[in-house]
Write a structure and sequence with these properties.
CATH architecture: 3-Layer(aba) Sandwich
CATH topology: Rossmann fold
Radius of gyration: 20 Å
CATH class: Alpha Beta
Largest sheet: 6 strands, parallel
Number of helices: 14
CATH superfamily: Nicotinate-nucleotide-dimethylbenzimidazole phosphoribosyltransferase (CobT), large domain
Strand order of the largest sheet: 3-2-1-4-5-6
Distance between the termini: 57 Å
Shape: globular
Number of strands: 6
């Protein structure tokens, strides 16, 4: 057994009995059947995942994984790599979007540094899990050297273990890393069999010339690694990033241990694709929260056979789109749990 074989273990199954009991309750609430649309379906799905007829979305855990990318040397981002460490510090200080969202939600936020070009200052919210100061340039060779995939995916599993110890209802994985839309696009192209031109987008704000340059970089990388892209773990090693691998590891660990996941946008969804290829049944545990403005995101969502809960034109990352969906899930649970039944309200039930 290798140190990543645990990724292949199947997910646990949702509880159909809990979902059935939740559905029976839905049928007794003071409303026409199906009148709350997707809010009803969300409550039923969470009931099956949480193995209880009355699900909750109160305790939310957010882990943001940060790492730099060697491919940034190819001019694929509008920002320098120093921004990765600076943004981690900003998140820790409470100034980033995900920091604000976590506060508003009463969610637990932690930051995991997997390897940045510029050192991240020590802070109580920052977990030090440095593998290397970023990945290698995947246009020159594999992004990850031998032995680097295992600690990356294990960092994701370790975050899930910390979340479980706090009895969380939902897990959100976020990411930060200059150049990571390029890596995520390369991962998605390899897993979907798509051409870069079909999925590539502006990321942090590239102009049309920059998007073409990014597509060309990904084309070169996929050609270079064509012989080693038949396995999802190998795809992560060849063209992924430490934070993308950590997200994939976190999603697999959640599926294997029964923790519902809110999947964020483009980069997180690329990791979700890898997780579903690695772990049979992992897709059951992934709730797709929002449709990113990145053009390639729709193809990934279609492959995962799920409609996103929100379509707000967001493309920030950090876990921000997933966090924005939490109030919707809380409302779904509150309606399911707190509405009166026809019998309780003394209202005649319809047929």
């Amino acid at each position: 057994m290798t140190d990543i074989d645990w990724l292949r273990r199947p997910a646990i199954a949702p509880d159909p009995d809990a979902a059935d009991r939740a559905a029976a309750r839905q049928g007794e609430l003071t409303k026409p059947r199906g009148a709350l649309g997707m809010l009803e379906g969300l409550a039923l799905r969470l009931a099956g995942l949480q193995r209880r007829a009355r699900p909750t979305a109160d305790r939310v855990w957010i882990t943001v994984f940060a790492a730099d990318h060697g491919v940034a040397a190819g001019g694929v981002s509008a920002f320098p790599q120093s921004v990765t460490a600076q943004m981690v510090a900003n998140m820790a200080a409470g100034g980033a979007a995900i920091s604000v969202l976590a506060r508003e939600l009463g969610a637990r936020l932690e930051l995991v540094n997997l390897g940045t070009v510029v050192a991240v200052p020590e802070h109580p919210l920052v977990q030090d899990a440095v593998i290397a100061p970023g990945t290698a340039d995947f246009c020159q060779g594999p992004a990850m050297r031998d032995g680097e995939v295992a600690p990356a995916v294990q960092a994701g599993a370790a975050a899930v273990a910390r979340a479980q110890a706090q009895g969380v209802d939902l897990f959100i994985g976020g990411e930060m890393g200059i150049g990571n839309t390029t890596a995520a696009t390369a991962v998605a192209c390899a897993l979907l069999g798509a051409r870069p031109a079909e999925l590539v987008g502006p990321g942090t704000g590239l102009d049309a010339a920059g998007v073409r340059r990014k597509a060309a970089v990904i084309e070169r990388a996929l050609a270079l690694h064509a012989g080693r892209l038949g396995d999802p773990a190998a795809v992560l090693a060849a063209v992924g990033g430490f934070e993308i691998a950590a997200l994939a590891g976190a999603y697999v660990a959640c599926a294997q241990q029964g923790v519902p996941v809110l999947v964020d946008g483009f980069i997180s969804t690329a990791a979700a694709l890898a997780a579903t290829r690695l772990c049979p049944g992992a897709g059951d545990w992934l709730l797709l929260t929002h449709r990113s403005a990145e053009p390639g995101h729709a193809a990934m969502l279609a492959d995962l056979d799920g409609a996103a809960l929100l379509d707000l034109g967001m493309r920030l990352g950090e876990g921000s789109g997933a966090a924005a969906a939490v109030p919707l899930l809380r409302l779904a649970c509150a309606l399911h749990n707190d509405m009166a039944t026809f019998a309780e309200a003394g209202v005649a039930a319809g047929r």
